[in-house]
Amino acid sequence: MATIYYTGCTLDGFIATDDHSLDWLTSRDIDMDGPMAYPGFSERTGACVMGANTWQWILDHDDDPWGPKPTWVVTHRDFAPSKQVRFTDAAVADVHAEMTEVADGKDLWIVGGGELVGQFHDLGLLDEVWVQFAPVTIGSGAPVLPRHVELRLEETARNLDFMCGRYSVVR
Ligand SMILES: NC(=O)c1ccc[n+]([C@@H]2O[C@H](COP(=O)([O-])OP(=O)(O)OC[C@H]3O[C@@H](n4cnc5c(N)ncnc54)[C@H](OP(=O)(O)O)[C@@H]3O)[C@@H](O)[C@H]2O)c1
């Protein structure tokens, strides 16, 4: 079981624009059956966690918000209840322990944002980073991982518009 940050990213290191747009990402071509694509990745994960702005983006853009995967949203806000989603302001270490319990040996997915990923890394709980780099720079936005994290490049692939990298965290 590994705890993995899986995300799309601009070439200059942002996962969303300053106003939380992902148009630069969703407008690109990716082969869903190709290397490092989402369906194959999702298959191996048993639970996921995200921050409040990422959940808000899903509410704003998805007609059928989220699937059946057990999901934790860390927040201080009062979101409307949603099936399979636990809203919590518990310590990140406790959230990780709860996720591990329900994931049944499968990997854990940190959806983002980057600061939340950093909180897991601060506790030594981040194992891998998978990034799909889109062919674009946007100058500013939500940073991919605002920490100093040493990584080892384990795997690379091209998937249509994307340059994909899988990295392990060096401890
Ligand atoms: N490119 C991609 O593939 C990708 C992937 C993921 C996300 N995104 C996008 O990137 C942007 C990320 O936004 P963001 O950087 O602001 O990050 P975020 O993690 O989605 O949201 C940050 C907010 O989550 C809450 N939070 C974070 N850690 C917490 C903790 N330990 N306990 C309680 N609450 C906590 C806080 O809000 P409150 O205190 O107000 O609750 C915080 O301001 C979004 O637009 C999202 O859609 C893109």
UniProtKB/TrEMBL annotation:
Coiled coil segments of this chain: none
Superkingdom to which the source organism belongs: Bacteria
GO biological process: riboflavin biosynthetic process
GO molecular function annotations of the record: 5-amino-6-(5-phosphoribosylamino)uracil reductase activity
UniProt domain Bacterial bifunctional deaminase-reductase C-terminal: residue ranges: 69-150
Protein name (record): Dihydrofolate reductase
Source species of the chain: Nocardioides glacieisoli
Lineage: Bacteria, Bacillati, Actinomycetota, Actinomycetes, Propionibacteriales
